[in-house]
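Chapter review: from sequence to fold.
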Amino acid sequence: MAEAHQAVAFQFTVSPDGIDLQLSHEALRQIYLSGLHSWKKRFIRFKVSVVGHMGEQSPLGFCKQTKVSMTFMSILCVLVGTGLWVSIIMIMRSVLKSLLSWHGWMYTSHGSVAWSTRLWMVLVKVFSGRKPMLYSFQNSLPRLPVPSIKDTCKRYLESVRPLMEDEQYQRMEGLTKDFEKNLGPRLQWYLKLKSWWASNYVSDWWEEYIYLRGRGPIMVNSNYYAMDFLYVFPTSIQAARAGNAIHAIMLYRRKLDRAQIKPVSRDTVIFVPLCSAQWEPMFNTTRVPGLETDILQHVNDSKHIAVYHKGRFFKVWMFYDGRLLLPREIEQQMARILADTTEPMPGEEKLAALTAGDRTPWANARETYFSRGKNKQSLDAIEKAAFCVTLDDTEQRFESDNPDQSLVSYAKSLLHGKCYDRWFDKSFNLIIYKNGTMGLNAEHSWADAPIVGHLWEHVLSMDPIKLGYTEAGHCKGEPHPNLPGPQKLSWDIPAEVTMVIQSSLKVARTLADDVDSHIMPFSDFGKGLIKKCRTSPDAFIQIALQLAHYRDKKKFCLTYEASMTRLFREGRTETVRSCTSESCAFVRAMIKGETRDECLRLLKQAAEKHQNMYRLAMIGEGIDRHLFCLYVVSKYLGEDSPFLKEVLSEPWRLSTSQTPLQQVELFDLVRHPEYVSAGGGFGPVADDGYGVSYIILGENLINFHISSKHSSPETVSLIPKIQLLILNLTVTTWIPTKTTGRRSMDQEAAVIL
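The token string follows.
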């Protein structure tokens, strides 16, 4: 969601060890390390998959079951049979990999599927096996391809043409052509080498340089949030809501540990598996601060969670007598924490502010004061917990009589809270409010928003219906009579650390107070009506945002829309540059008041262009990750590229992201339209720009999350701009036909933003 923030003005310095025969030792070393890391992960996955199947399906397992004596002949048969079995698996994986490298299905028209696509679907199903598990496709996914320098340069110039005057464009065109002819091919050689050796030529550098090397606060700048139901309030008892939610999350973790989560598909009709690598660090993971770069610390298993309430930290075991605690038992533990009246230890109350401020002071303090004794033990309890929970002492909720302010308060609370009541380094924090409302705050480096969204959909679907509550609002079941209580963590925080805490808190509060946010549930119409235009809902919304921005600023800007590359092994995101010449032509026509037919024609052209760019991004033909990696290589080579430097410093003043609803089968929005999430959002990206997140729910609802900064005179996220956005989305033309008085398909398609 928020990776564009780190991608703006991206700079770092690397000095090569030397150059020999035009080869950089440092560049080659980094490529070697990337590949080594990839091969280690692949070997572990292969070993787990082979061992997991050997006992059930291999000839060795058969021999054990039938108690065949281990004679020389039987051993030989076992070896031959096992070799044949492994060979068949490898052949099936290779065939499946070839099938998944074909992306012609993406160009299938709605309502008609070509015979080639149908045949491809059948073959994918056959070679996928009967019951594929979460990681079943990891070794069958193709590698992310490296686009050609020529194509990337061409598409880059195409993307900036509507944003530049003729003189500025001609200058940029000269820089681009010089790069394409001279330095570009040399940098490309290193990327090709890395793409052959490593699983993914982008992801490890993206994780390190865009996320982990950032020295500014991750709160607001990187972390993002997810909201509860908008209109449903299952219980007002804080401990009970925590009981069901925590139990649902732990059930999800158990399914994840057993790889029983269904592989996620890109398309709801055509099964196309996506990479599942980002699920691995979801639990038991913490971003640990370092002086120059952070690291992701992941432990294999954790049997406890860490809970924060009114300045105190608690360690709560999730298992008793060898089983997972039931919802009522977890509620019992949360109630004990809420009833605890002990005061925080000196320095403990605002300790988590260290995770909200700059990274280097936190790294220094952690190394000096939290590396031994009870401070280390308590810090380990937090960092090695499955996840963190905050029992918040405020009340947040959507209020129908005060929708704007209630949602703003709710969003800002999830995004940053008091700046010291969330452990922002944790993979995610579950926040339970005093009135029973809840939400998530997630750290961004370990995974992208759809991964957290998948977990959150599971929790929301489990909580009010499958788990449920008693009439009094408690979790179902009975408290445990002998359950040991939570363990209050102990600290010895010296005055020097208290000063660092106060300094970090000051930085965090300045950042949090500057956030201007607005959440808009838009229900005038949704994707149902948009599809009658035979237009992609995502393209429609992106073009609407272009119109809104132009009406506000009287100019166009570089626009970031997050796409994904998880069709490839260890893929993460790619950028769709949504401001195109076609969308600009439509906006100008709207501003000039052109005819409805002309605006519709230009709208369709802009939407088709956007969909094509989205497809290119998904199949590895986007330009921004390629340019980013070329820049990394240039730094390792010690080369200065005016072209790359300028490209990587261009600000994304409009950063957007769609939060997809992935498990539609979990929510019956036709019968129960009230069971809709408000989605999630992220902080402002550029100091003078907007961050826009949106989620399309059912046929008639789109939720928008818009953020900017109070300190900028260029942006306002509150009511005036929202009213403008509503106007852009709801200018409709309804003309009844003279013969029947009913709306025809073409007339219903006359929705001109």
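Two observations follow directly from the output. The radius of gyration is 27 Å. Confidence is low (pLDDT under 50) at residues 7-23, 50-68, 719-724, 729-753.
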